[in-house]
Amino acid sequence: MAVEDFFYDYVKNVVKYLNAFILQFRIQKNIEDTKMVKIIIDPKCSGCETCVNTCPVMVYETKDGKAVAVKAEECLVCRACEAQCPEGAIQIIE
Ligand code: SF4
Ligand code: SF4
Fold this sequence. Notes:
- By secondary structure, the chain is an alpha+beta fold.
- The chain contains three helices and four strands, in the order αβαββαβ.
- The chain folds into two domains: 1-35; 37-94, 2-Layer Sandwich (Alpha-Beta Plaits).
- The strands form two sheets. It has a two-stranded antiparallel sheet.
- Strand 2 and strand 3 (66-69) form a beta hairpin.
- The longest helix is centred in the first third of the chain and has 33 residues, at 3-35.
- The protein starts with a helix and ends with a strand.
């Protein structure tokens, strides 16, 4: 293999690993950002289960006739639950 080819392959691999590292860093940062989300459910919740059926990652369950965010750490901050809740009882705080 010519020296130029070797050098070209070397640079290509370095760029590839750097990209993988940056991607991993971004994913980790997104996970950490997501963990900071707070979900507040007002007592006026009627237990209609709209949020339970709307959330794409199944954050909610109902207990004793009220919604509970049992997996808040999974929240994607899509805000579908906030928009769909007929009582305006959900607040997503980043
Ligand atoms: S959509 Fe709103 S009112 Fe219905 S269960 Fe969820 S928080 Fe309660
Ligand atoms: S913002 Fe989206 S992902 Fe988060 S709890 Fe509401 S519906 Fe689920």
